[in-house]
Amino acid sequence: MVSSTSDVEDGGLGDFGYKESLDRSLGKFASFAAGVSYISILTGTFQLFYFGFGSAGPAYLWSWPIVFVGQMAVALCFMELAAKYPVAGSVYNWAKLLGSRIVGWSSGWLMLTASIVTLSAVVLALQVNLPRLWSGFQLIGDGTGEYDYATNAVVLGTIMIAFTTLVNAAGIRLMARINSAGVFIELVAAVLIAVILAFNIQRGPEIFFSTNGYGTEESAGYLGAFLVASLASGYVMYGFDTASSLGEETVEPRRTAPKAILRAILASFVIGGAILVFAVMAAPDLNDPELGTPQGGLQSIVTSVLSGPLGTVFLICILVAVTVCSLAVHTAAIRLTFAMARDNALPFGERLATVHPKYQTPVVPAVVIGLLSILILVINVGQPKIFTVLTSIAIIMIYLAYLMVTGPLLKKRLRGEWPPKDLKEGGYFTMGRWGLPVNIFAVVWGAGMALNLAWPREAVYGTPWYNTWGAFVYIGVILGLGYLWYFTVGRGHIGTLTSHAATTTAGTAEGEKV
């Protein structure tokens, strides 16, 4: 373990003009667990399998390796940045440093609003799993009423958000203990699920090499169906930057964070992919219409193959995964809020950037984000389709926020200003001569995937027109509201708060203005 002074230098805080104020106590596994739990193998695959399978059938699984390759290119760029600047709110700070104040703020604003909506979306997975364990978890009605399902999902989700708020407010050490234990359970359960499904396969891999009749109603044929279905994989494989966003609370972050990012995305790809492949090969009946519905999906395959007490145990493990995923998303959103607030880049910046003297964590952002997520959940009661639209748009905003990092990074690389010499000299991660092609691919991938996610489709976004074109309408509204504050109030005040500045000179306190 290195000293606190060395950690500050290694963490790149001096490059941003910040002083150390968070509890630096996370080890290697806790950092890795943060990235894995955000991606959450069991949460993502079990929550979204129905959408991918229902849209394009078994062959939709080819989108899993395609998305992995694209996101790995992004992750490699982030690993280089984490090796130099493992700071809280990493995407925001990286975009600000590589691009400009306005680019950083835009990235942070998109990422923050998306993270709050994502937290609301993740906790809805409780409704898919808890009533399967025990009918008593259907607290509202019996599940047959028009709004029973949605209303009960809001109640269960609210309880979970209250839990993640309390844990995050109590400090990073408690969060790390719960998260690490949960991730360990999730990884063991995920591997066992894949192995048991593999021992119960009923068909060969040829099932993945046929359209199986899907796409016949699409204007672009199976390609159109596949592009829609690929959203299911695109919705899962992100959030690996969380390991770097907790860099100010990690021991030796410049070495730990890049490895944590790599391990998180590799573990998620391999184990999640194995579950998906063997589940399709082991499913009793691939023509069962329930496989393409939220009430059926991957859960129905696992419970039918792993019948009895074993199936119940694995459903409990899925709930553990949902819990730690919710916890990680909430944690990442808090760190991003804190990072922007200490730059006075959000309303009530001083309050949001306050670190509790006992728990050494930003408590106010934990509460505010929890309340906002619960408020968003309420929309789901009477208008579930609008909530689906907002959830999809949240993922697009995260891809756009990533693009605001990889794009400016590519510009720096083309100018010969990246990577810094101290990465290679210090033995830190760097892509070397592979950096330029990987970075170019990351930018092209990010732009292409964002376009695919945003493309107006009634099958995804529904009607009327403002939902069909929701990616452009709602993101435009979110950015518009943000820029309204930025250009009328925020721009004149943005700059590192004196309470968080490494120096207290006028220039540092006022900061750069755009």
What's a concise summary of this model?
It is found in: Membrane. The protein has 514 residues and is mainly alpha-helical. It is built from 25 helices and no strands.
What topology emerges from the helices and strands here?
Elements: H1 4-10, H2 13-16, H3 28-39, H4 41-56, H5 63-84, H6 90-98, H7 101-123, H8 125-133, H9 148-169, H10 172-198, H11 222-229, H12 231-234, H13 242-245, H14 253-282, H15 297-305, H16 309-341, H17 349-352, H18 363-382, H19 384-414, H20 421-425, H21 435-454, H22 458-461, H23 465-468, H24 470-488, H25 506-510
Can you describe this structure?
This protein has 25 helices and no strands. The protein has helices spanning about 5-10, 15, 30-40, 40-55, 65-85, 90-100, 100-125, 125-135, 150-170, 170-200, 220-230, 230-235, 240-245, 255-280, 295-305, 310-340, 350, 365-380, 385-415, 420-425, 435-455, 460, 465-470, 470-490, 505-510. Helix 4 packs antiparallel against helix 11, helix 8 (about 125-135) crosses helix 9 (about 150-170) and helix 18 crosses helix 19 (about 385-415). It is globular. Mean pLDDT is about 90; it is low at about 1-10 and about 505-514.
